[in-house]
Amino acid sequence: MKKLQDKVAVFVGGGSAIATVALRHFMNEGAKVVLVDVDKKYFTRSEDIRAKYPERIRTFIGACSVQEDMDKAMEFAEKEFGKIDILCNYAGFHGGGDVVSVQKKLWDIAEDVTCLGTYRAVRAVYPYMKKNHYGRIMNFASIGGRANRGVPITYAGFKGAAIGLTRALALELAKDGITVNSMAPASIDTTEFERIPEKDSVPFTPPKGALKGGPGATRGGSFIPGRPLATMDEIAHTIVFMSSDDSAFLTGDCLDVNGGQFMQP
């Protein structure tokens, strides 16, 4: 039997590159998915997949920065597919700037999307999962929130906050049959998709001495020979595991998919 057969998932930030690749795997594993994102342009990445599985994929325009949007998205998902088993929170915001130059606007957006957005989505889905005494929640974090590799403080700060929020939610929701976990990838090869710039983000130059991942990395890079980057398929496999019954005894954890980068000093 397929790992996600007849499971219903909601992807918040569902138009992102990694969510699109995860969507392929969810379709292969028998799931039904509602993609939620703030603008229809992000759904262009999944056009071919949606055309192949029109009966198992829906889209919904909504922002994780608006509680009413999240509430309506979950209501839509249950109306379309009858239940909600899985919530995957992919939405995030890089921002930019350093400790002196960071704009309050960017700090506020990063908090609103990366941390509070996760909270709003979980709050909205909770009644549906509680009703069925079942749920898998996956929050997409980053090594930037675990062991900073020279990313903006707006990104590192609130990815770290999302990991802490994950633990708190896991403790609170365990009684309702709901597991809550996060994952923290390092550098990912996203060349399959053209980048769609984040609204309001600004160019960022890592501070001198920052640890760098990715191709050519030395200290701070992957330990796996010839593998500086993870493929999006490798990340998607982990998301499928975290969303399936195979992960039933995993909650409050953060899976580090980074080729060993996190174990470095």
Automatic annotation (TrEMBL):
SUPFAM superfamilies referenced in this protein's UniProt entry, alphabetically: NAD(P)-binding Rossmann-fold domains
Q: Pfam families given for it?
A: adh_short_C2 (PF13561)
Q: Where is this region: Disordered?
A: 198-222
Q: Which GO terms describe its molecular function?
A: oxidoreductase activity
Keywords on this record?
Oxidoreductase
| Domain of life per record | Bacteria
Q: Provide the coiled-coil residue spans.
A: none
What family is this protein classified in?
A: Belongs to the short-chain dehydrogenases/reductases (SDR) family.
Query: Which named protein is this?
Result: SDR family oxidoreductase
- Naturally occurring in which organism (per UniProt): Hominifimenecus microfluidus
